Amino acid sequence: MHFTSETRLDGDLLEREFTLDGVPGILWTPATASEPTPLILLGHPGGVGRMYPRLLGRARSAARSGFATATIELPWAGDRPGSPAARQVRAELIDVLDSGAPVTDDLVDRLILPLVEAAVPEWIATIDALLALPEIGGPVAHSGGAIAIATRLARIEPRVVAAGMFAGSYVPRSILAEAPQVTIPLHVLLQWDDEGNDRRMALDLFDAFGSAEKTLQANMGGHTGVPAFAGEDAGRFFERHLR
Amino acid sequence: MHFTSETRLDGDLLEREFTLDGVPGILWTPATASEPTPLILLGHPGGVGRMYPRLLGRARSAARSGFATATIELPWAGDRPGSPAARQVRAELIDVLDSGAPVTDDLVDRLILPLVEAAVPEWIATIDALLALPEIGGPVAHSGGAIAIATRLARIEPRVVAAGMFAGSYVPRSILAEAPQVTIPLHVLLQWDDEGNDRRMALDLFDAFGSAEKTLQANMGGHTGVPAFAGEDAGRFFERHLR
């Protein structure tokens, strides 16, 4: 892990850009923390530059609870090298959505599974590197991003002790089949009237998780209209499980 | 409204039992309030005596936010005169549940609609009487109880400005049809693995409400196992809308 920049932001937040095996990322730590902090990995739909304002907002909010946050760019997104295969299947998706035809399970598999396979090892390597820093002590939680990535990570990475998920993306059937093996506490946000979201699949996935503590919170307001109080409720979820 | 007892409980809560046109009820007010307070009506499944410990817990919690709370006994429940018709249909329900047969829409109608018709005017009369007290200023919210009663009250009583609902009881089709006319902010709790609950109906009802702000929070833990954090989240809902 190589730090490539270090900026002290207002509100006592230290922002450091890094690269890890060629993957760019950002680490935010509360500058005034006197002991190693818990860590929340911030998922996103790809394109850290485009998502930066919202990621920073989530980082600031977590820092007020004394938590470090970090994110990395997704495969084939942002400034990372593209993938002809990923471009091709994304173009297919756009054609299907434009035509009004249903998005088939096969298309969802080809769209999401390669992303999960490529991204999850990178997030695990990021956990390795961040927990090696003296200022990061754990425990580790994951928040948001593609729910398929979040589900796989929650299933296979025991250092992730809690996950806040956002039910706003496609879920391959094989990921749904993994859900019963997820047993950590979950807080799942669902935008009820999100047109780009398959509500039935989101409810099926929530139902399938094996966790004894799982909360589904559904709100109105469309894909990007998560109300402020829902963010605060999610923040309290992390406070309960990271302290 | 006649007060029949007055008790100062620890935690500076004043508890007064009352009767209103023969309906017994309880009013809890923060004893130290210096100005007229908002009011939360506490719904319940019937049997105030049996429900008293949980009702008192909800009253204490609301009083910490500076809110008065009140409840009345449901028709044909607790110490109120019974109804042969209500006893008959309840016995039918028990037979149906024992036999494992599905609970028909007709049975739900005969079980719930007379209760809604009888109870809602009593809750409205209670609002009238409580708002006439100098220590109660409004606004008024409704919390819990049979969701069919809560839905009807939210639809027809404009003084109820917000409702916390508990999706844990039968919903007649005609009440589902009223839901689009409910437009106040809603916070709906659903116990996801509640065996006595029809989850599909609960989701349909949540979907049908006309409110621009509505939140569904689903948790694990069975009918009576609402986690403490869910109660706190509901408390914040009332704080947002009653202040």
Automatic annotation (TrEMBL), chains A, B:
SUPFAM superfamilies: alpha/beta-Hydrolases
Annotated InterPro entries: AB_hydrolase_fold
Protein name in the entry: Alpha/beta hydrolase
